[in-house]
Structure prediction request, 636 residues.
Amino acid sequence: MKTVVVGGGSWGTAFARLLADRGHDVTLACRDPEQARAIAEEQRNPRYLPNVSLHGIPGTTIEEAPLEAAELAVLAVPSRAFGGVVRSLRGRCPVLSLTKGLDPESGNRLSTLVRGRPVAVLSGPNMAEEVADGLPSAAVIASEDAGLGRELQEAINSLIFRVYVNSDLVGVELCAAAKNVIGLAAGGVDGLGLGDNAKAALITRGLVEMARLGEACGGRPETFSGLAGMGDLVVTCWSRHGRNRHAGELIARGASPERAAAEIGQVVEGLTTAPVLRDLSHRLGIELPITEGVCRILGGDDLSDLVGSLMGRRPTAE
Amino acid sequence: MKTVVVGGGSWGTAFARLLADRGHDVTLACRDPEQARAIAEEQRNPRYLPNVSLHGIPGTTIEEAPLEAAELAVLAVPSRAFGGVVRSLRGRCPVLSLTKGLDPESGNRLSTLVRGRPVAVLSGPNMAEEVADGLPSAAVIASEDAGLGRELQEAINSLIFRVYVNSDLVGVELCAAAKNVIGLAAGGVDGLGLGDNAKAALITRGLVEMARLGEACGGRPETFSGLAGMGDLVVTCWSRHGRNRHAGELIARGASPERAAAEIGQVVEGLTTAPVLRDLSHRLGIELPITEGVCRILGGDDLSDLVGSLMGRRPTAE
Prediction:
């Protein structure tokens, strides 16, 4: 399958490698011309996952990518850039989104920004570093076009990357967006040194919050217990590779959100998504207490006050 | 509340401290007279959590514990010993079980072994080491006696140990038993170096398996998404304190189950529970593929063959 992967971050890079190893004809297109040139010259991505060989995967810009001839465009760009990139795509091939977030301008799911083409999303516990190392992973592909979902499953599934189809596009996209915000909060627990018990309790309530949001938007509860929900949430909150977790840890130790993002040096989607989700929850009339708390901390509130007020609430039924 | 905590392992020790700090009159009763004497003399438990002061908490044997005068007996003994200990209890006070497992002889839930007294169970993501260090935790108390549940919630809840009541005794007990078996499997993933993505996928399918078992036994699905289910599962599978996870890691690296248990030096409940759960699933006619896999590995099968066969299955819907 002739594929253009758009986005030269760590996940775009690892996914391009995964597709090429599965026998597909893959081009890696970057928004940054400098990065495109470096990949084309060095046959690796000097900025992200520099140890992964991109031999056989040409690097180029979006403008020069062979999109008219492509059978699939994979988008692995930050949520902030997704709308602009999708509007700039030439050709008519289907889009597979790897981006985990919402459109910051409208609060809409990213797949709704794709017009006039079939669209699917891929999500799950897929830390790019491990996928690039050839370690086994599992993911879901969700699409309203069941034929596209099965076709992509067939094209991508392998012994080291198991792909399940899921028809709940809404649920999968909301899980992917919301888990990063819970990841920031989990990092806060780490940064304060509150321990694994506290983090597990937070994650448990975080999944309840994610499912509440998802159901209010029309997602299915099972999705939140699946790979894109619980699966991705636990790896986001516990893996040493988790950027959102790491950012939360740095912020809890006193860094500003900007400083934390700069130190991590990659996009920290939860920082963008938290206020978008909060606004969405207000429009929907539902409560997302962890997301509200994250937004207050990002706005400068004191984290230890927040923890104290959570633990001091009246004891209730679960 | 006059309380006897029976069981001088790490959780019994930490819980005795927690209750005493909450103002209760606590005695710590050990099955082993040597350990009882050591605790009485040293005012700490030299074997488990030796840094935790047990000042004000007398150590004694079960035979000499003030059970007739007690208002609550807390049982924190291995599942293998639970039936014998409960039959040996004098007095008529309610029992709160902290033990996570099933009765190995009958396959029954442990609370069903308590006859002629009110019974409740406490479960959740509560690594003893962290509770002993005063780090915040949350737990659920489940009982068919709603009054007892609320009374214990009131007696135990504090700013650092939040207690929720849950009326689903069946679900809470099955979660507590099954999560240790999934913890062994998660340790196997660690031991083979398969990475966090694979572990997250395993945990996700593990929770599905736990919920299937729980529903077949009459438990409620929400319980499996709550603190006793997902919450305890993730801390069991990810915390460095997780004994079952650690045992699975050692076994995956070539240790026998006996050797792994000896190296850990504390009870590894998953080793006892795995075959009990497998037999239960056969009687119920439900499939528990991870538990079956754990039983095969404990029986001497090769772990890498099992992983290969799982990843090589036909791709399906989630």
